[in-house]
Amino acid sequence: MVKNLLILNIGVFLIMVFTKVDLIDIFGLRYLEATDFRPYQLFTHMFIHSGWGHLFSNMFGLFMFGPLLEKMWGSKRFLAFYMICGLGAALIYSGVEYFEMEKLNRLKLSFISSPSPESYIKFSRDALGNDDLSYPQLLNLFEKNPDNKEIIDLAKNRVISVYNKISNIPSVGASGALFGILLAFGMLFPNTELMMLFIPIPIKAKYFVAMYGIFELYSGVQRNPGDHVGHFAHLGGMLFAFLIVKYWERERNRFY
Q1: Phi-psi region of 234 (alpha: psi -120 to 50; beta: other; left: phi over 0)
Q2: CATH number for 77
Q3: pLDDT computed for residue 85 by the predictor
Q4: Are residues 88 and 156 located together in one domain of the fold?
């Protein structure tokens, strides 16, 4: 099953590369209330990758940690685990994204109902970060002419455009399922020593997974607007993996 998943993910990426068909636009996961959201994206996003580096990191993790879990569980159970973790990651990520987009939507509506340079800056910083104030020249004009109808209309159009663009950014990748595999490996083989690529020091799987989880939680809570990594998707995959492994352990211990 690991081999089949590798072939599927790599094959889909090669189709994108050689046919130039934008599968990310079609199958990437969108914000739940985005105009381009489709329910099937909750599943299809995990088989799409945005670049060679993205593909390699996920497939390398699957290749390294997947086979031992598949050998332990069997192919069907491993596939079920993989898909449930991927779906769980999508649901957690979508829930967090819904909360964040609702906040951004309130800022958008607040600006439209009562436009001012201050509310324009607040929206822009929340949406795009401190490194982008949404066309500084427009902001300068707005600050000098806060009652100018033409400038207000330009600012409104800009705010609406930014909101619509952000709400339709697709999320792709098998990272949620991969982080589920990583957590399961740490739970089931906690004392297995791993050698990290860039730091040649052996570390037990349980500590490696714990550090990764803490890092993802910290990065997700920080929510840097310039950070396009789905940290809560990773945490969602780990959460569902924990629940599945615990449920299967309980099931195994039943003798009736």
Answers
A1: alpha
A2: 1.20.1540.10
A3: 92
A4: no
For the whole model, what pTM was predicted?
0.80
Q: Among 71, 97, 98, which residue's Cα sits nearest to residue 184?
A: 71
pLDDT tens digits along 81-99: 999 999 998 998 888 888 8
- The tokens describing 5, both together, are 């998943």
Residue 104: inside a domain: no
Do the strands 202-204 and 193-195 form a parallel or antiparallel pair, or are they unpaired?
Answer: antiparallel
Contact 178, 82 (CB under 8 A): no
| E strand spans, the chain | 193-195, 202-204
Q: CB of 175 within 8 A of CB of 48?
A: no
What is the C-alpha to C-alpha distance for residues 42 and 100, in angstroms, rounded to an integer?
A: 19
Query: Domain residues for 234?
Result: 2-98+170-250
Cα 244 to chain centroid, rounded: 21
Chain position carrying tokens 């105009």: 35
Query: 3-class SS at 38?
Result: coil
**Coil, strand or helix at 76:** helix
